[in-house]
Each structure stands twice: as C-alpha cells, then as structure tokens.
Write a structure and sequence with these properties.
Layout lengths: L34 H5 L50 H12 L2 H23 L22 E7 L8 E7 L6 E7 L14 E5 L8 E3 L5 E6 L6 E6 L4 E5 L8 E2 L10 E6 L7 E6 L3 E6 L8 E4 L14 E5 L7 E6 L3 E6 L5 H4 E6 L5 E6 L6 E6 L2 E6 L8 E2 L7 E6 L6 E6 L3 E6 L9 E4 L5 E6 L5 E6 L4 E6 L10 H99 L3 H8 L1
Antiparallel strand pairs: 1-28, 2-3, 3-4, 4-5, 6-7, 7-8, 8-9, 10-11, 11-12, 12-13, 14-15, 15-16, 16-17, 18-19, 19-20, 20-21, 22-23, 23-24, 24-25, 26-27, 27-28
Length: about 600
Amino acid sequence: MEIVYVYTKKRSEFGRQCNFSDRPAELHVDILPDSSLAANFIVRDPCDVAIQCTQEMSEHEVNTERFESESRGINHVEGGWPKDLNPEDMEATIRYRKKVEKDEHYQNTVMQIASLMEHCIKQNNAIDIYQEYFEDEEVVEETEEQPSAKTINVFRDPNEVKRTATSLSWHPDGNHKLAVAYSSLEFQRAPKDMSFDSYIWDIENPNKPEMTLKPVSPLVCLEYNPKDSHILVGGSYNGQIAYWDTRKGSQPVEMSTMEHSHRDPVYKVIWLQSKTGTDTFSASTDGQILWWDIRKMSEPTESLVLDPSKKGNLDNALGASSLEFETTMPTKFMVGTEQGLVISCNRKAKTPAEKIVCTYSGHLGPIYALQRNPFFPKNFLTVADWTARIWSEDIKESSIMWTKYHMAHLLDGCWSPVRPSVFFTVKMDGTLDVWDILFNQNNPTLSLKVCDEALYSIQVQDNGSFLGCGSQLGTVTMLEISPGLCTLQRNEKALVSEMFERETKREKILEARHREMRLKERSRSEQSREDEGKEGDREESVEELVARAEREFFEIIEVEKKNEMNKEKDQEREKGVCEQKDFQEEHENNGVTSFTKREITL
C-alpha cells in the first residue's frame, strides 16, 4: 500500500500575483563620455581583468518584417479576342478595338486603373533610386589598357593534305563549339587525295575534332541554325546544299539534287527568320540566289537571277561571292558580287525585275565580306581588293568611309557584335587588323601577325571577346582580345551615329557638287557642239564659194582655150589659103588643069 501525503497552502500566502504585459523599452541610465578622462587614459596591453560581480544588462533587438520573394516565369500571350475574330487580320482588330473603346464600361475601368497607376508613378518619382550620393569624391582613374590579343587555342586540319578553312560558325548556345568548313578554292587544282570532311571542334579540346561532317563535295560554307543548335546547313563546291543533324550522325540528312542546285561553288548560306526555323537561302558565283526549305530539298522554293539589266538572263548574271541578311529587315537582303558591285534586293517584290532595287559600286575585285552594322543596319561593311569600305543605304554613288589601300589583299572581315565602332579584317599576309573608327580612321588600332600563310575567314563570338581566324592551310586560330575592344564605351552609340550622319552628309554634299560640275561640263560640251555645227555651216558656205570660184575659174579657162583654138584655126586657115594661092600660081604657069589644081588644093 502506497502512502501519500499532500501539503496544502493558501493562495494568499504566495504574495501578490504577477501580471506580465508588453511595453516599449525604457532607458534607465545614459552616461555621457567625459573628454577629460580620455587624456588620463593609458592603454594597457595585454589587459586581464577578473570580474566577479557585474551589473546585469538587458539586450533589446528590433528587426523589420521579412518579405519573402519568389521568381516565377510568365509566358505573355496575346489574347482576349472573340472567337469569331481573327487576331492576324489587322483591319478586323482595329475595328474591334475602336468598338470597345467607345464602350462606357471600358472607359470607367480605364479611369479606375489610371488612378492606381498615377499613385504608383508618383510613389516611384518620390525617390530617385539612381541618385549618386558620392559624386564629389575623387574617382580613381583606371589606367587604360593597350589593345592586345592573345592566342587561346589552335585547331589544325587532321588530314595530311591540307585545305583552306573557308568558313567558321560558332555554336549558338554557349559558343563552346566551332564548326569549320574545309575546301580548296583553287580552280581545278584540288589534290587527288584531298579529304572532303569538315569538322566541329570543342574549343577546350584542340587535339581532336568533336564530330566529323561527311559531305559528297568539299564544303565552302557552313552555318549553325540559330533556333536549333543541332542542325547545320552547308554549301558545297559542286553547288549542292546539304544539312546535318548532329544527333543523327556524320552523314547529311538530306541534300539538294544536282539538277536544281547551283552550277558553281556556294560561297554563302544564311538561315532566314521564320516560324519553322527551316528556311534558308544561298548565293553562288553562277549568278543565282536560291531559297530552300530543309524539309524538302528536292528543289528550291524560290530563285533570283542577278542580272543587272533586270531581264533574268543567266548568261549576263553577276556572280555572287557574299551575302547579307538582317533579321530586323525580313524583306531586304544584299549580295556582293565578283565584279565589285553590291546589289540591294527586295524579296517581296512582285516581279523578278523589281527584286533588284539598286547597286553600289566602289571595289575593283570580288567582295569577300558584306555585313550590316549590328547597331546601325543602314550602314554596312564591304571587304574586297585592298581596302574595306563603310557604306550608307542613302548614298549609292560612293562609300562614306574607307581604309587605306594595303599591300596585301583583304580576304574577309566582320563587325564587332558588342561595339558599333569596331570591325575586324584579315589579309593575305596572315595579319589580323582591328579597327576602331572612333579612335583612329587611318590606321588599325591593333595589327597582329597570326600566321605565315594567308587568312581566309574570320568569325567573332556573340560576346565579342573571342574570335576565330581560318588560314589557307586549314589552321584555325582562336584569339582573345583585350577588354577595351569588346566593352561598350560611354556614349559610343551616340558618337558613332553622329559620325555616320556627318560622313553621309559630307558625301551627299560632295556628290551634289560633282553632279553640278558634270551638268556644267555637259552644258559646255553641248554648247561647243552647237558652235561646231555653226562653224560647220560656215565652212559649208565657204566651200560653196570656193566651188563656185573654182567653177568660174575653169569656165574662164575653157573659154580662153576655145579662143586660143579658134585663133590657131584661123591662123592655119589663113596659112593654107596663102599656100594654095602660091601653088595655083606656080602650076598655072606650068600648064596644069584646074581639076588637078583643086585636087591638090583639097
């Protein structure tokens, strides 16, 4: 049996009940510092203090309420149209919009939302979040780094018979791969044992290509699909177009037929901006531009003959050596020809003759590179013969800027994707030139000897810091340029825009002056022709006078001749009569008959 004892105690014996409540903090002691004591203070180091009994202190912390944020993706899709309305029909949508805007409920809703929006705008304008509080402090100026470039990797053609690296294309996602097309561009001088393969390189592994592409003819150009990084399209030396899917192996998925392909090497192929991402078009020196859909490569979907007379005669067509297409201008494209002309075309024109809009003439040889400025599409770059030129669409007679004439041929060039004033050119002597037209227009900002053989191709990464140069012997050199050449400078866009506008106005003024001088010369030549005609009339009148005088002179001579002849006849007649008289007298004396006398006389 368990024994339990309970102690009891009354509530009153515990004392007063404690009631707890929340209250703000109270300041009990505030001891101000005494500056006089600081003078007598001596720092003791080390300092060991033994504390046995100290004053109890309380700590009070205050923090604001935490706001939890979360990132979410949103797909914005145009909607809200009625079922019976086609959103793609511009006129129908405009009529429906006007109808809704007249609705009273719509106006009331907009007024309510406008008041909330006005409140938010005023709230945002109350504080300038971009205000700089330390503008007066001295800013340490950074030392400007000299323009430079260093070699990162070198990718060499693994075949024994070396070929030219004719085209480069960076991988669109991440730029960690580089596709290179190899072929021999010397006419009918390709070695017998030359390989047809082209390669995809991993920029981290220069020893062995990541993938081999096996075309039926050497590839002259090769391009990644910007919408699908697994697909590449290439133009062959024999004029065929083929495309590869890296997930399906090294063999081409589909090729164009020989009957409907180009007749010469395909020097450029470009992907078009389309919903399907399967449209592309190509240019060749046979004088044709062909459009393709890789889902059906049996024949091109459209074609254009580069006949400057606009008659569509392939015999008179200009050979295309370069091609340019800007996604922001889906209907326009430009073609660089072997004859040094740039042809501006409009794909949406109704007739083939109207598709060729205008031409730009200024080079002496084939145009190897043609590209619009990424920031100012109205201005484009051309590289040919011994110089590079910058053009404006508004002026067709001449370029607005150009480099000096070099000793070596220029074989390729391109704009920087991050700086509007920087472009690159490569030359036949193996030199890479980097031009910054804001810094210097006469000489390149950086000139680098990449290799001993000729450089045929160049391509810059999207970030602008890495670029690849392909040489005649198939060596692709990957370079990293200094940050100053791939970092957008302050006010650079505005300065480049002003420069282009200024040069365009200057060329317009000069061209107007030349046109005026040509008109004056033409008027002078016409005036001189008129004067020559008048002098000719005078000359004709003088000739008539001379002829008349000559005719009169000969008439007088003829008259004088006749008079002389008559005088001679008279003299001879008189002489004959005298002789007859003498003879008659003599024979009369000798007894000759009169008949005999007459015979003798006759």
